[in-house]
Every structure is written in C-alpha cells, then in structure tokens.
Amino acid sequence: MNEMDELSRFRAEIPARDTTRAEEIFRTALLKDLSHERPVVSPPRNRFRQLRPTWRVAIAVPLALGLTAGVTVAMLPGGNNQAAAPLTVKLTAKVLADRAAAAALTAPGVPAGQWIYQVTEHTIPAVIHRAGVHNPMVQDGWMTADGTLNYGAGIIGDPIFPYDKLDSLPRDPAALDKYFRSQDPVKSDNNSSVEFGQIRSMLFGMVLPPWLEAEMFHALALIPNVQVRQNVKDIAGRDGVAFLLPETKQSDQQEIILDASDYHLLAHGDWGNPRDPSTFDEDAVLQEYPVAELGSTQPSTTPPSAAGLAAERLVWDGSNSVLPSARYTADQWLYRDLRTGGNDRQVWATVDDTEQAQYVHGTLQVCKRSDPCAAAEQWLMPAGPSYQLVYPGPVFTQAELAKLRKESLKQRMAALQKARKAAKAQPALPQYPRPLLNKLNSYNTGCADVADDCNAVNVVANMLTGYGNDPYTASNWFLSLADVPGVSIQQVTDSAGQQVTEFTFPAQDGVTGILASGGSFVPSGFHYVGYVRDGQQTLVLNQALVSGPGVLPGK
Amino acid sequence: MTYEGRADADHDLDDAAVIQLSRREPEQFTLLFRRHAPHIQRYVTRRLGPDEADDIVAETFLLAFRQRERYDQSRADARPWLYGIATNLIGHHRRAEVRLYRALARQRSFDMRADPITEPFTDRVDDRVSASTASRRLATALARLSAELRDTLLLVAWGDLSYDEAATALGVPVGTVRSRLNRARSRLRRTLGDANPAAMHEESPA
Fold first, then answer.
1. A128–B116: do the CB atoms touch at under 8 Å?
2. Same domain? B25 vs B82
C-alpha cells in the first residue's frame, strides 16, 4: 500500500453528511446579501424571492461577513506568557545558548530502548475543548528513548531524524542550521522559521545525546531574528526564559522555553496570532525520566534487558501493520495446522475457541464447550482469560448503530460518550506488562511453580495458539514475557527450518519456550511461531480464516 | 431563451448553466449548493472537523455566489472553483487544522481517545489500535507539510480533483501541482518510513 492509499483511508469513515445546517447558514447570509444587491428586472417568482426585502443598490458588497471564527480576530493585549517583572540582566541569545548547552552537557545519556516516562501538559484544539475536555490537558505516557514505541500520550516519539544517524550530524552550529534550513525548501518570507521549527522538533520530539542537545542550543542562537524573552511563564506556570522567533506574514511566532534557573527544557509553543491567546499552542514537559519498564513510574536507570529489547522489536513489527486489519469476530472459524514433533494436527476452531472441530477416522467431529464431548476435547485454549476479556467487542449492536446513524452529531457524541463510559466500567485485562503478567499468573494452568510466572507463560502460549489475535495485541504480550524472572532469549532454528527468536523460561513444567519471528523492523513482520513444552516444539504451520469447520483454506 | 419551468429542473443543466441562470435568478444558486455541498462538506470535515465544516461550506457558497459574475463559462464543472474557495477558507484555520493533526499525533496506542475529527462518526469505542500507528503517522506527516503542499495533496486525495482541476482550484499551473504533489508525497513517504529506526534517510546532512 502506498502513501496515497493510506491517505485516502485516513478519516475515510467521515460520511457525506446532512448539509441542512450549512444550507440554513448559507441561505440566511444569501438573503442578507441579496437585500444589498442591485435590482434585477425579472419579477419575483417563488417563495424564496418573496422573502426578499426591498432591493437596494449597494456599490461595494462587504466581503467579510465574519461567518467563521478565523476571519474575525480578537485583538487582545499581550500574550499569557508575558510578565511585567523588570529585567535585571539582559540575556542575549548567545549567552542563553551557552548556559543551556552547559546544562545539557551535564545530563547523562540514555541508552536506546530505555523506557522514558513523561508527563506533559498541552493547550488543546478548540474542537476538543468544546467537547468538554479540560484545557490545558495533562497527559502521561511511556516511550522508548529511540523513538520506536510509545504508550499513553506524550511528545517524545516523533523522531524527525533517524536515531542511528544522529552521529552523522555536524558538530558545528552553523552547519546544523544550514542542514535544517535545507529540510524545507518551500518558498517563504522567513527561512528562520524552518530552522527554528526543526530544532524544536528535535529537542522535544526526540531523546538526544547530550552533545547534540548542546549543539542545538548553539544553533538556535545563530538563527537570524532569534530573540530572548526573559521572565516568561510556561502553561504550567513555571518561570522560564525563552528563545523566541517573531512572526512574519507567512510564519507563526515560535518559542522554546527553558527553566529560568537551570536552563533545562520546559516547553515549546507557537502563536497563530501573538495578540490572540486562542491561537496559542503549547506543549510543556512537566516530568521526564528513565524507568525500568513500560508502565512503571519509578525512576530507574537500569538499562533494558536483552529480552526486553527483543520484545520491543517484536512490538514495533506487530504495531506497524500498515493499517489495522479488520478484527476477527468471535464466531469466525480458523483453520490451523499444528505440528508437534513429526505429527501434524489439523484443527478448526472458532476465533474465541468455544467450538472446535477435527477429523477422527475420516469423520468431522464438532464439539462445543457446552457439549458432553468438551471434557475429552483437547482445547487450543485450555485455560486463561475469555476472548471477550482479551478483545472487548463493539459496544453497539448493528441495530443500535443503524439507529445512531440517523441521529444528529450531538446525539451521536452523547451516545458514544455514554458507551465509552460503560466500556470503561467493563472488566478488562491490565494494559502494562507487569500488572498483566500478575493477572495472567492468577489463572490455574496446573503449574506447580507459581513464583516463576509459570501460569502466566502458559496462558500467553494458550492465547497465542488458541485465539484469533491481532498482531498488535499479541506482540505486546512479549513485553510481559520479557518481564518473567530468569527469562533469556536466543536465536534458534525451529523444527520447520525457520530462524526464530525463542524466549526461554526457567520454569520446570509447562511451557518452557515461546517462539516468534520478526524483530527486524519490518512492518507487519511479527508472527507467533509456536511454543516449547516437554522439550518439544509445537509450531502453528498454517493458520487461516475459513468459512466453517472442515473447510480447508482457499476452498 | 426562457427559463420558465426550469426552476427545479436541475438535472439537464451543467454547473456553468446554473451559474449563468443564477445571475438573473439568484435563488437558482441553491441548485449548485445541493449538487456540491455534500462532497465539499465531507472534504472540509476531514480537514477541520464537523463543527467548522458547516460554516465553511456556507461561506464557500456565499463567496462563490458573490463571484458568480466572474465565473468562467467554459468550465462546465464548478467543483474546482468551489474547492478552491473552500481551500482558501480552510487556510484561515490553518492553525486549527495543524493542531488537530498534532493532537492526533500525540495520541498513543493503548489510549482510548480517538481522532477528534472522526470520533463522532466512529462506530466502535474500543478502537484503541486504529487511532494508533498509521493514523498517527499520517497526522504527523500532514502537520509537517507546508500549507501549499497540504492543500494540493488533499485536493487530489480527498477532493478527488484531477491535476488539472487542482491547478484551477489553486490558480497555479498544472506543472506546479505536479511538482507540489511529488514533494508532498515524498515527504509523506519519508515521515511514514521515519518511524522505522533502521530506515535509511533519503537526504544526509551537508
């Protein structure tokens, strides 16, 4: 799929809506307009025209009706980050850059793959604001320091430059500026805005090595027209000092705010109109520090383990399918060919594994969980959370949806919010690796050795083998597996001859290994391969949706 | 020639004829509205959300109405003209548009908040995955494009205009549309690929 296909699918769910309201606005304005137009000779003929007041001659038709918010601009004095406090020492851009660079150089570097926890505060677009969300909004999230993965919400994780090429950037501020300027050769009255914007994105969207962060500040100070504004406050109310690039006709005012006392990065923002606070857009970093794993808020400089890094790579592959594929529904049938040792087992199962089928002596035997045969059936998913718990289904029935589609936007939003609230109240599996592992460990899979998360490992193997999974969800389970005490990883050749990654667990019984392929940063490259039990691999050689039990793929 | 009885006989007149007619009979302009407003409204909604779209669509047709005397009668299809006006009006909301892309770009996987623009039209509330990766990255890419590249790209991708029609809409030569599209597409490709830390960069620093 190319970028144009992706673009045409982006927000494609927006339908061609009812234009009644737009037409009302249009007609009202048209009527007003017509009342100022010069008379025409043809007589009035329909209802529309009879509504018209007397025709008058108007030489100039006023063009700006101010129908849309952007046309009329409120002129308000000052921005919200201008303070009246008198300056004591006048900082130049160069002096501020020197101080900020010196501060940056004292910070420790962070290894690639390290999880970073970040709390940020944002001004938010009016559309969301109107929907009742508090403005500014505080969000938190986790990201890996190399920008590959992110969870929750934050502003790191938007690398505009490949992390593994950072070393190739020049260690010379003027050359850096030149490079950034070359990144956006759009004709503009203000090339400084391109450089400033690129440096903003690098400083706030990425975790830079200290030397590069320091060079960035020097490069900022060299940008033509860059100013320093002292005694500013960021949206969180913290005292700061800002690099500021004034607006021009074609570019917005931009700011990078540093802490007034130790010069670390606080916030960045821009203004559509420096005199109109409603056009102000700022992201402030309230907290940012390394943690040991996704989901943890405890500061820790423990670098990620080999298993953790391998899991991160699998998740990258699993989450980067071009667009999320249509999800399975619980009652669809999946065909699987499972190979254990030299024996193949062909089995059909519903996506939620509540019904299975296989041939016994040439006869297809179908078994439901509620049937007497269930006790003897070798279920793909013998123990663990229900499919519903793992994959909560749609909250609206088809009938509800059809009804909802006929309602107004406001009613739809209200229904959606209500449903969302209800969905939140539903039981769900924990999101992050350690709590999920603890929860999965509470299922009884017959392990004697609970301390090593043996039950959780068995449950993950069950879910991977027995459910219809989406690659994103499934790959994320490997972050939990990487958290099992004593886990190790190795590259092995599976019994079908493929190079795969094996997560090996110390437990003495149950599943001792889980195999996956991927981890090479190939979108959609993640595949669950199989598991190891009693020293023997069981591989899922083929898995495909089919129309019903006994039907082979492609038939 | 008489237009008697033609007031609602919308189908046998092309846009140019409707506009011509509306010079004498202003109310005929509403035919043009009914014909094109739904598509233009969808285009504007995709860029700015449903709240702004109603106003912008209304204003598009109002401005078009005021300029109807100047309409080039050789153009049977008024879509490029109307999309051009709508795109100019969207330009007044450039900041809001970019902020919406950025807000989406900030949404991470595992997050229940979806794209504020598509939210009212979403049928599932558990779309934790669909608001992530691909959409986020497209939003990031769109936020980074200059206004002229974004306008050109979206007129073609979302307005379904041909290169010639986009050129008419934007009032630029078709060669400019072509080169802007090339640039916009390569930027898009790069941003979509940038998330891959192993991907090679097309350009390297000087």
1. yes
2. yes
Q: Which residues lie closer than 8 Å to A7 by C-beta, 6 or more apart?
A: B138, B153, B157, B158, B188
Q: For residue B53, which residues of chain A lie inside 8 Å, CB to CB?
A: 17, 22
Do B123 and B104 belong together in one domain? yes
Distance from the A499 Cα atom to the nearest Cα atom in chain B, whole angstroms: 20
Decide if A40 touches B, using CB distance below 8 A. yes
Indicate if B29 and B40 belong to the same structural domain.
yes
Domain count for chain B, please give it.
3
B75 lies in the same domain as B119: no
Range with top average pLDDT, A13-22, A195-204, A316-325, A364-373: A364-373
Å from B55 to nearest chain A CA?
A: 6
Residues B86, B41 share a domain: yes
Which residues are CB-contacts of B182 (< 8 A; sequence separation ≥ 6)? Answer: none
User: Would you call A153 and B111 a contact, using CB atoms and an 8 Å cutoff?
Assistant: yes
Whether chain B has a CB inside 8 Å of the CB on A179: the answer is: yes
- Domain of residue B120: give its range: 95-132
User: Given this model, what pLDDT does residue B28 score?
Assistant: 86
Residue B42: CATH number of its domain = 1.10.1740.10
ipTM of the complex: 0.81
Alpha-carbon separation of residue A427 from A121, A330, A432 (angstroms): 29, 18, 15
Q: Chain A: nearest CA to B31, how far in angstroms?
A: 11
Residue type, A310: A
| Cβ–Cβ contact A193 with B under 8 A | no
CA distance A526 to A474: 9
Inform me whether the pLDDT recorded for A211 exceeds 50: yes
Contact B100 A125 (CB under 8 A): yes
pTM of the model: 0.71
Q: Which pLDDT tens digit goes with each residue over B5-59?
A: 344 445 678 999 889 888 888 888 989 999 999 999 999 999 998 878 989 999 9
Task: Identify whether the C-beta of residue B147 lies closer than 8 Å to the C-beta of residue B93.
Answer: no
Domain boundaries, chain A: 21-72, 93-304, 315-392+428-546
